[in-house]
Amino acid sequence: MFKFAIDPHKLEAFLEINELLNSRFFDLNDLFTQILESATRLTDGEASSLLLVQTESQSLEFIVALGSKSEAVKSFKVPKGEGIAGWVAEHNTSIHVPEVAKDARFYSIISKNIGFPTQSIIAVPLRVKEQCVGVLEMINKRGGASFTDEDLTWLELFSNQAGLAIQNAKNFQAMKEELQTLKTVLEAKPVPQSILTRNPRMIELLNLCRKYASTDSAVLITGENGTGKELIAEYLHKNSSRSQGAFVRVNCAALPEALMETELFGSVKGAYTGSIADHFGRFEQAQGGTLFLDEIGAMSPLLQSKLLRVLQTKSLERVGGSQTIALDVRIIAATNLSLEDEIEAGNFRQDLFYRLNVLPVRVPPLRERREDIPLLAGFFLREFNVRFHKSIRNFEDSAMKSLINDDWPGNVRQLQNTIERAVVLTSSEQIVEEDLGMSVENITNSGSRDLKNGIQIFKAGLINRVLLECRNNQTKAAEKLGIQRTYLSKLIKELNIETVEKGVRHVSKY
Predict the structure, then answer these.
(1) For the residues of 454-465, what is the DSSP string, one character each?
(2) Three-state SS annotation for 338-386
(3) pLDDT at 313 > cutoff 90
(4) What is the pLDDT of residues 418-440, one digit of tens each?
(5) What pLDDT is stored for residue 444 in this prediction?
(6) Phi, psi at 46, each rounded to 5°
(7) Are 124 and 136 in contact (CB under 8 A)?
(8) How does residue 52 score in pLDDT terms, banded at 50, 70 and 90?
(9) CB 434 within 8 A of CB 468
(10) Does the pLDDT value for residue 455 go beyond 90?
(11) Which domains can be identified in the chain, with CATH numbers?
(12) How far apart are CA 352 and CA 162, in angstroms?
């Protein structure tokens, strides 16, 4: 890179600047100023500018400027592709212009307007992940000297380090904002202990639910079975002005139609055989609070019609009665079905859907929030330790890896059941992979039901467990499996089974 003798003073200055940029996290504005000051000191420029690319306007904006006319310069913008800096940004390439007056690319408007004569320029792109995000521009070398190719090389080296510092600062700023979002979610109103998450989508969902909680509008929660729709409903209730009222649950799929009507709307004495007293339905039980209608898609068309009327009039009449009872109830419904598909199939009323779907919430499945699996698994482990009077410390690495990699068609509920079974079965202080009993589940839950593929998955799972027991000693594992050592090695390669042998890691595709 260097075609000249390295100036030891410049090398020392460069190393000092590099150490400064990487020694602490800057605010972006402070970082830009530090970059320009350091670049100017390194090249001995009389004036300098740091310009950033503005994507929407396709122009360059002066963010920091140094020199006698620095404030005046900041009022200008340079169209991308025009001027020396614009050319550098467009081509993502450095440039040395010893005599700007002879270069057609020179954007003389700024120089004339601020009354600053420009003789020479060196300019280099500021890159983040190879993309030009800005330009460092040095104008006129001090003492009337000319910039050299050596100055340009040093500026290019410095620009590479500055780009890394900018990326680090952006990452740090994004992390701070994410932590602040999480802090807001956790501190503004307490999250129920059972909602544990590090997933950005779930954090965003909880923020959305906090906004929904401030209203009395109906909420429709959708998501696969076992994702925690009821927990989200509880979260909405506990963070609302109705939190002191009752939270009443109804599983619309659990009761037959004849009983469901009475359960929802209540009945009067004598309404049916054996009715010896008035019965308060779930709507009345939820007065001043929240009624949670789970599995709403399972409700019969007749009950859907009656529910719609109650939602429209905000009142009901008990079964067998004529008295109208005014209601003050917030409705939260949940379903694992696509109600749009059910409407198209004629199984669900469109007008009821619109009544319920005022504020929609979709709970993501566990496979879309894998970073939450260790958090949830640890929570369940502590819970079952207490329940079963055990003191299991943690999960072995391979066991946790299996948990994280599984698709969990039964979602959080399936994960909870798996941990419960492991806690019951294990006799050690650590959950190991075989305690999870996931091999059969993985075969049946895999995308393919092909017999050959299933056998391969079973083989891989069995060999993995035996290798684990034998601490990756293939000779012992082969003896335990009742096969030759060479055949086991062949299977390990064919099945891509994870093992460590002579420093090489193999990872199973099954």
Answers:
(1) HHHHHHHHHHHH
(2) CHHHHHHCCCCCHHHHHHHCCEEEECCCHHHCHHHHHHHHHHHHHHHHH
(3) yes
(4) 999 889 888 888 998 888 876 54
(5) 46
(6) -80, -40
(7) yes
(8) confident
(9) yes
(10) no
(11) 8-172 (3.30.450.40), 200-362 (3.40.50.300), 447-510 (1.10.10.60)
(12) 58
Question: CA separation (Å) from 510 to 106, 304, 397, 456?
Answer: 61, 46, 18, 7
455 token code pair: 């056998």
Show the tokens assigned to 321: 């009665």
* Mean pLDDT within 284-307: 93
Q: Report how far residue 25's alpha carbon sits from residue 34's, in angstroms, rounded to the nearest whole number.
A: 12
Do residues 448 and 454 lie in contact, with contact meaning Cβ atoms separated by under 8 Å? yes
d(C-alpha 197, C-alpha 433), whole Å: 24
Distance CA 72, CA 84 (A): 19
Write out the E strands in 305-351. Answer: 315-316, 325-326, 330-335
pLDDT-derived band at 415, boundaries 50, 70, 90: very high
- Lookup: tokens for 229: 């729709």
Question: What are the pLDDT digits (tens) for 66-102?
Answer: 888 877 877 778 887 788 888 998 889 999 998 888 8
Coil, helix or strand at residue 450: coil
Quick check: helix, strand or coil at residue 111? helix
Residue 116, both tokens? 């600053």
Q: HSE (CB half, 13 Å, CA atoms) of 386?
A: 5
Q: How far apart are CA 369 and CA 377, in angstroms?
A: 13
The larger pLDDT score, comparing residue 317 to residue 185, is at 317
How many CB atoms neighbour CB 194 within 10 A? 14
Q: What is the DSSP letter of 189?
A: S
Count of beta carbons in the 10 Å neighbourhood of residue 301: 12
Q: For position 355, what pLDDT does the model report? A: 94
| Closest of 74, 16, 24, 13 to residue 49, by C-alpha | 74
Interval 144-152 mean pLDDT: 87
Pairwise CA distance, residues 57 & 53, whole Å: 9
pLDDT at residue 506, rounded to an integer? 39
Residues 223, 344: Cα–Cα separation, whole Å? 19
Find the helix packing angle between 149-188 and 200-213, rounded to 10°.
50
First to last CA, the chain: 48
Query: Going edge to edge, which strands form the sheet with 45-54?
Result: 77-79, 59-66, 45-54, 131-141, 121-128, 95-97
Residue owning tokens 């939270």: 247
Is the pLDDT assigned to residue 275 strictly greater than 70?
no
Residue 338 scores a pLDDT above 80: yes
- In angstroms, the CA 114 to CA 71 distance is 10
